[in-house]
Specification:
The complex is a heterodimer of chains A (123) and B (110).
Chain A: E1 3-7, E2 11-12, E3 18-25, E4 34-41, E5 48-53, E6 59-61, E7 69-74, E8 79-84, E9 93-101, E10 109-113, E11 117-121
Chain B: E1 9-12, E2 18-23, E3 34-39, E4 46-49, E5 63-68, E6 71-76, E7 85-93, E8 98-101, E9 105-109
Parallel strand pairs in B: 1-9
Antiparallel strand pairs in B: 2-6, 3-4, 3-7, 5-6, 7-8, 7-9
Classes of the chains: A mainly beta (123), B mainly beta (110).
Chain lengths: 123, 110
């Protein structure tokens, strides 16, 4: 059974960089059948897609976050990562990683999700 | 303000059939497929319906999706207490080059 697990600091200071890693187990991140994505959810609010990446490093990002976001992949560790720079309180959210089904690209089909990790931006 | 519009709340009694709407435009629902997600309290979202009307394995056939023009709907028949959750629609938007979600509908089972 495929499992995804987010990890990283739960508290980040304003203006600093938020860094999270998603470790994939029970399957290979190197398959060409899927992309891997990040989605966030501010407390009490809805979902916002951040971006997605495939095993070869091809990415596509939410245009409103693109200038601050970098998603990368490490196939040797079966992990992919998120970096969000210059964070503010509005970046406080539960961050989820997910597998992206890509029968149709671009895809909004997130078929496996991590449990999510709360990141709070505060001094 | 979400690009896809959902009613903030819906409700029904056990056994009833409820529908949740998702309204968009020609650049999103009108030209791309719609997915639906169920988020039980305190948990990660779960894919409920993909490509407008397909159910992943393990999703009961009480859940069904449809799309017409620039709108989509999620129907839940034989409502059960465990269906109480937030439901989100999602689609790709060709104009925004973005994944757009609805604002979510909180379903209450009375």
């Amino acid at each position: 059974q495929l499992q995804l697990q987010e990890s990283g600091p739960g508290l980040v200071k304003p203006s600093e960089t938020l860094s999270l890693t998603c470790t994939v187990s029970g399957g290979s991140i190197s398959s060409s059948n899927w992309y891997w994505g990040w989605i966030r959810q501010p407390p009490g609010k809805g979902l916002e897609w951040i971006g997605s990446i495939n095993y070869s490093g091809t990415t596509y990002y939410n245009p409103s976050l693109k200038s601050r976001v970098t998603i990368s992949v490490d196939t040797s560790k079966n992990q992919f990562s998120l970096k969000l720079t210059s964070v503010t309180a509005t970046d406080t959210a539960v961050y989820y990683c997910a597998r992206v089904d890509i029968l149709v690209l671009p895809s909004t089909t997130f078929d496996y999700w991590g449990q999510g990790t709360l990141v709070t931006v505060s001094s | 303000q979400s690009v896809l519009t959902q009613p903030p709340s819906a409700s029904g009694t056990p056994g009833q059939r409820v529908t949740i709407s998702c309204s968009g435009s020609s650049s999103n629902i009108g030209s791309n497929t719609v997915n639906w997600y169920q988020q039980l309290p305190g948990t990660a979202p779960k894919l409920l319906i993909y490509r407008n009307n397909q159910r992943p394995s393990g999703v009961p056939d009480r859940f069904s999706g449809s799309k017409s023009g620039t709108s989509a709907s999620l129907a839940i028949s034989g409502l059960q207490s465990e269906d109480e959750a937030d439901y989100y629609c999602a689609a790709w938007d060709d104009s925004l080059n973005d994944v757009v979600f609805g604002g979510g509908t909180k379903l209450t089972v009375l």
